[in-house]
Amino acid sequence: MWFSDKVEPDHVLQGNELLIHETVVHENPVPFDGELKIIGETDEVVAVDKPSGMPVHQGGGHRVNCLVEILKKQDPSRFTFAVHTLHRLDRLTSGIVILGKNPDVARAFSAAFQKHDQEIQKCYLARVKGNFEGSDVVVEGYMRCVDFRVGKFILVDSADGAASKDESKDDASATTPSENTDSVEEKKEQVEDKWSQTRFEKVWYDEKNDETIVKCYPKTGRTHQIRVHLESISHPIANDSCYGGEYKADHPFAFPLAPHANDVPPKE
Hints:
It is a single chain. This protein is α+β, with helices and mostly antiparallel strands. 13% of the residues lie in helices and 27% in strands. It has four helices and eleven strands.
């Protein structure tokens, strides 16, 4: 705190005196070098390719090193409007992020996401361990946080199900889509345990590395949902060390660490 002259601790501010509080803030870096790629734009939205390791918006230890703020700094003449995040991707997840240019667009997208009727569909690509059996698999269950310090989740069969990691593997339900007749809306939300559902499609098996590329279609949007669901059926994301994978820096596809958001296609 600075004054023009030295003062005592009990000094009362007078007219025209200025008090300044200076602090040094060290912000966590993000693994990014270059410019963010804008892959599409209309009068209402902007589509941006978000790299892995970069948060979408301010929060936690990031106020400047996030997608929205970097875009504003990268092209201030272009981003003169208030940017609205229409959906989010985890910091470690790479992929397409769609930003709205006005509040009406943000409200419309929010309503469409909440309908759960495929008007808007999220799709992720994930590289998982092992040969993914089945071309079309649905995993569902209740998400439970078992370690609030690091945000560790497991999947249980019911809101009152077992909370241990080993038991959660038995509780996870993997079936074909035709066997799931209950809609997400018919599942009761719990205070702590929240219902979740993801559909997976096998794309390609890499026999050399014993890994599979799968498409992931989350019906709900829980924290770490895709990562937890894949671990629960013994096909964790290959380099996700938090949920059964093993990070290998020398792997040809070592980055990103999490799924890739492939597209958010509209209903045809």
